[in-house]
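Researcher: Structure for this, please.
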Amino acid sequence: MIGKQVLQQPLFSMINLEAFIPAGHVVRRIDRVLDLSFLNQITADLYDSSNGRPSIDPELFFRMQILKTLQGIGSDRKLCSEIQVNLAYRWFCQLSIEDTIPHHSSMTRIRDRLGEEVFCFVFEQILEQCHGAGLVPGEKVLVDATHIEANASIGSMEEREESDTKPLEPRFERYHDFREGKKKRKLSNKTHVSTTDPDSTMVTHRRLVSRLAHKVHYTADAYKRVILDCHVTTGARHAGQILPIRLQHLLDHLSLPLSQVTADKAYGRGPTYGFLKRNKIRPYIPLLKNDLSIKKYSSKEFRYNKDQDQFTCPAGHILLPYQEPSDGLRRFRIVGGHCKYCQRRDQCLPEGYKHRARFIYFHPHQKEIDNVRRRMKTAYFKKKLTERSWKIEGLFAEAKENHGLRRAHLRGRAKVQIQVYLIAMVQNLKRLATSYLFALCWVLFQVKLALQTSLKWVVGKELRHTQKIQI
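Model: Predicted structure, C-alpha cell format:
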C-alpha cells in the first residue's frame, strides 16, 4: 500500500531550533567562540535612549554580517532572504521561527551609523580572544598585499578638473594631445578619476586588463596565521611604503614583541631595512633589485668619507654627489676628466662606458642592503620565503574563494575597509574555533589515557592479588 504525505499544520507547536543544527555545522563552531556582549556598551552613544522606537540589536546586526561573510553571500538583500528560510542561519542570529527578519535596507543605515571605528574595535576584540587562547605569540609575522577589485567600472573614469590637479610631470604633458583628439585617448591616475568610486585607482596586472581596485595589506602571525592587521589603501599605493607604518601600529597599539618579519621582494627597500634595524626586527625580505654590477652599487674598493660626504676610488680620485637623491638613493661621480687618462679604466668601466666618467650609487642603508644580500644565499632565508608563500598567500586565497575578497561589495575606501575587517574577523574566528576543538580533543585524549592507566593498574592489582591467593 503506497503511503501519502499530507501536510497538516499543528494547532500549537514547540520548536527548538538548536535540535535541527548538526553538531559539526560551521555556524555552531563559530557561535561557540563568538562573544559580542560588549557591543551594546560601545554603541550606546550612537542612539538616543529617550526618543524613537527600539533599533535593531547591534549584536544581531554583527551576527548577520559575520554570517554573510562566512558563507560568501554577496549582498544584504540575499542575506535576509537566506536567513528567512535557513534554520541554521536563524539559530546563529538568535532569531526564533516566528521572528521577523530585519529589512535589507536597514543594514546600510546601521553600517553607516556604526562607522569604521566600531568594526575596528570588534576586530581587535576578536584578536584579543585569539591572543588569550595562545594563538598570537606576536614575535614572527608575515606581510603581503593583494588587490580587491572596486565596485566600479573603468568606464566611470573622467578627466580631473584643472583646479584639482597638481602640476603634471613632463611625461604627462602630452596628454592634452589625446584630449583634443589628435591621438588615441589614454587613461591615467594622474589625469583621470572614477566618478563612481573616487578612492579607487586604476591598476594593470600582467595577463589582466586594466581595472579599478583597492589594495589590501595583511599582517599575519606566523604561528597559526591569525591576522593581526588589515589595512586598505588605493590600488596604486606601493606596498613597501605601507609596511613601516603598519608595523609601527602593531608595536604601539598592540604592543607585540616583534622580532622577525617575512615578506616578498616588493618590500625590499632601503628605508624598510633601516626601520627594521632601528626597531631590532630581523628581516627576511629579499632585495627588490639584486643587481651586483658596478652600474648600480658601489664596489668595496671605493672608500666613503662620511664627514666630507664623498668617495675615493682606488686610483685616489674623488667622487662627489652628482644628482639629487631619489628615494634615498644617491649618485656619486668623478669630475675633472680623470677617468679618461686613468690606467685602471679598463678594469673600472664596463664596455660602452669607457668614454664616460665612473659613477657609483650609494644608499644611506647600504650596510643593511649588503647584509640582506649576503643572507639571501642561506638555506634558512630561502626556507622562510617558502613558508611565507603558502601561509599568507593561502590566507588571501581563502578570503577570495570563500569570503568575498575578490571584489568589493560597497564603494569608498572606508566601506571597503569595513568589508576587509569582517573578512579578517571570520578568518580569525575560524582559527579560534579550530583551536578550541583541538583543545577539547586533547583534554578528552588525556582523560582517556588516564582512565586506561588507572584500569591497567586496577587489573594488575587484582591479578597480583589472585596469584598470591593461589600460592
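Researcher: Any notable elements?
Model: The chain has a mean pLDDT of 82. DSSP finds 13 helices and 13 strands in the chain.
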